[in-house]
């Protein structure tokens, strides 16, 4: 084992993040790792006797007892999902340290964590909301400074009809749309670099062609090369994360449906709407798993279970069922009196 007495925690965190970067995670994922690792390390440094500056915290200070105390403090103001995510980050961090010989073992088994949260689907609310959104955004809105309805509809349609994540949308190239007419598909670089192929129906193909035609008119044919980013901003530059998020939020406002977007979902609500409608229309968990690029079949199965629960609730709310309940209630009362 390497000499670890003078190994600073912050230095090792950066080495860990550099190693993770080789797996090509999204920048958001790396930022979340850094944020959780530094936050708990800061609590350890503050709890030392005497308290230490964070850059003076050494790896030898991270004992099971110290980590339990730090995580207890970390958990107090946070939701269970946030605590679980931080625990997972630290578990991965120590797995890396053990593999590289900085520590003899992983102390995280001695630190309690909440159960893994089951992510709840957050589709757009309202039966016809996706259609209303697409219709509203497809119209020219003179209140916009730089209207580009063809591009905006293409963004929404790729999320609603192909279930793409934000990072997957940003990674698309013009050449990602492949295949002959009638057999078109989009080749996606998914989460963790896992590739998948999603079929494109003629309607989405037409939307994408219309967008690319409008892009040629705006910026010239030379800007639509196969290796060019598929989605660009009003200057013809590749869209970035913040710009894409803002675009989707502005589309919600233009359509007047902000009250139907689950809190914290934003663009992901479009992907969840795609998955939920797949389940409603009879797709099985394996099909949903392949189309959305899920790692676990259980994640895909959850859409089916939630959809079944929603369908049961809808049937329960049916006015005829309520009337039948009143009728049966009256019949029971009459029988009691007899």
What features would you highlight for this structure?
338 residues, mainly alpha, DNA polymerase, domain 1, hpI Integrase, Chain A, 13 helices, 3 strands, 56% helix, DNA_brk_join_enz, DNA binding
By DSSP, the count of extended strands is 3
Q: What number of structural domains do the residues give? A: 2
Order of helices and strands: HHHHHHHEEEHHHHHH
- Beta-strand content estimate: under 5%
Helix content: 55-70%
Global mean pLDDT = 86
Describe the structure.
- Keywords: DNA integration, DNA recombination, DNA-binding.
- The protein is mostly helical and 338 residues long.
- The protein folds into 2 domains: 102 residues, Orthogonal Bundle (DNA polymerase, domain 1); 175 residues, Orthogonal Bundle (hpI Integrase, Chain A).
- 56% of the residues lie in helices and 4% in strands.
- It is built from 13 helices and 3 strands; from the N terminus they run H-H-H-H-H-H-H-E-E-E-H-H-H-H-H-H.
- Strands 1-2-3 form a 3-stranded antiparallel sheet.
- Helix 5 packs antiparallel against helix 6, helix 6 packs across helix 10 and helix 11 packs across helix 12.
- The radius of gyration is 26 Å and the shape is globular.
- The C terminus is likely disordered.
Set down the secondary structure blueprint.
Elements lengths: L8 H13 L5 H21 L16 H12 L4 H20 L29 H10 L10 H14 L3 H6 L5 E2 L6 E5 L5 E5 L2 H18 L21 H15 L11 H14 L4 H8 L4 H20 L2 H19 L1
Antiparallel strand pairs: 1-2, 2-3
Helix pairs in contact: 1-2, 2-3, 2-4, 5-6, 5-9, 6-8, 6-10, 10-12, 11-12
């Amino acid at each position: 084992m390497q000499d670890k007495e003078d190994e600073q925690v912050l230095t090792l965190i950066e080495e860990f993040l550099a190693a993770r970067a080789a797996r090509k995670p999204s920048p958001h994922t790396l930022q979340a790792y850094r944020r959780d690792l530094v936050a708990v390390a800061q609590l350890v440094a503050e709890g030392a006797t005497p308290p230490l500056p964070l850059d003076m915290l050494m790896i030898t200070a991270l004992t099971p007892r110290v980590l339990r105390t730090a995580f207890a403090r970390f958990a107090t103001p946070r939701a269970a999902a946030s605590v679980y995510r931080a625990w997972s980050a630290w578990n991965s961090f120590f797995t890396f340290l053990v593999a590289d010989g900085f520590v003899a073992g992983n102390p995280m088994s001695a630190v309690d964590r909440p159960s893994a949260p089951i992510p709840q689907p957050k589709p757009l609310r309202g039966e016809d909301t996706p259609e209303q959104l697409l219709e509203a955004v497809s119209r020219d809105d003179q209140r916009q400074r730089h209207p580009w309805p063809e591009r905006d509809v293409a963004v929404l349609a790729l999320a609603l009809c192909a279930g793409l994540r934000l990072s997957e949308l940003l990674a698309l190239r013009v050449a990602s749309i492949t295949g002959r007419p009638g057999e078109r598909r989009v080749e996606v670089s998914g989460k963790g670099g896992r590739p998948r192929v999603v079929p494109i129906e003629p309607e989405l193909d037409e939307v994408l062609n219309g967008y690319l035609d409008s892009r040629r008119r705006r910026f010239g044919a030379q800007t639509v090369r196969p290796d060019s980013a598929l989605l660009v901003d009003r200057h013809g530059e590749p869209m970035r994360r913040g710009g894409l998020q803002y675009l989707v939020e502005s589309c919600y406002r233009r359509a007047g449906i902000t009250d139907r977007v689950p809190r914290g979902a934003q663009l992901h609500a479009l992907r969840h709407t795609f998955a939920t409608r797949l389940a409603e229309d009879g797709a099985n968990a394996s099909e949903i798993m392949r189309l959305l690029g899920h790692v676990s079949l259980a994640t895909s199965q959850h859409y089916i279970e939630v959809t079944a629960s929603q369908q049961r609730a809808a049937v329960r709310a049916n006015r005829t069922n309520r009337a039948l309940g009143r009728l049966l209630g009256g019949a029971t009362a009459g029988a009691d009196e007899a």
